[in-house]
Amino acid sequence: MSVKYLQIYHAIREKILSNEYAINQQLPDEITLTKEFNSSRMTVKKALDLLVSAKVPLSSLAARLSENLSFQNAILKDLRKFLRIHTLLLNPKLFILN
Hints:
It is built from 4 helices and no strands. It is mostly helical.
């Protein structure tokens, strides 16, 4: 079995990355976390310190969402281009020479 503070670290990290803890939402305080994980405040503090030192908090989630949005925009741009070409092929009357 792994060390308790690492289990807490991974559980909180997963909640951050899965957006259970939303952007700009404050994490639960140490006392709440000690009850949730049935652990001492010292163990919870060690897990929280590890989260901070690993720079896991919400900025990584925001960066990941930004990357996904850029990717989605590129797909939409290609899809629009495809649809324009497809429309012109099906309706040659819409194709106007300048």
